[in-house]
Write a structure and sequence with these properties.
108 residues; mainly alpha; 3 helices
């Protein structure tokens, strides 16, 4: 489980960075510009798209983690279902493989 926990932490950190950076993509004529790096509730399409993608990815990884934890609590370790969930998590981490904190064991 330590490898799952470290991958989860890595993904959360990258997504937190992307969430902060979403504030940089507001339209020039946005009536509600970001304040102090936080995304406001405006209608600019790019920040909304970034935040929507991040919310979806967070939900997918949360579901994967719950599946792995549920099987491990039953005494089943790395069944097909858990293995598939871990592969999904690794696939979501792949865009960040050039980050210094990336671990080669996370390659799908």
């Amino acid at each position: 489980m330590p490898v799952v926990t470290s991958l989860m932490s890595f993904l959360q950190d990258r997504w937190d960075e992307e969430q902060r950076d979403a504030a940089l993509f507001h339209e020039l004529d946005c009536p509600d510009p970001p304040q102090a790096g936080h995304v406001s509730h405006c209608w600019c399409p790019c920040p909304a798209q970034i935040l929507g993608r991040l919310a979806l990815h967070r939900r997918i990884v949360w579901d994967c983690e719950q599946r792995i934890r549920r099987e491990q609590s039953r005494g089943v370790h790395w069944s097909v279902d858990s293995g598939r969930a871990f592969q999904i998590m690794k696939a979501l981490a792949l865009p960040y493989e050039l980050h210094p904190a990336w671990q080669d064991t996370w390659h799908p």
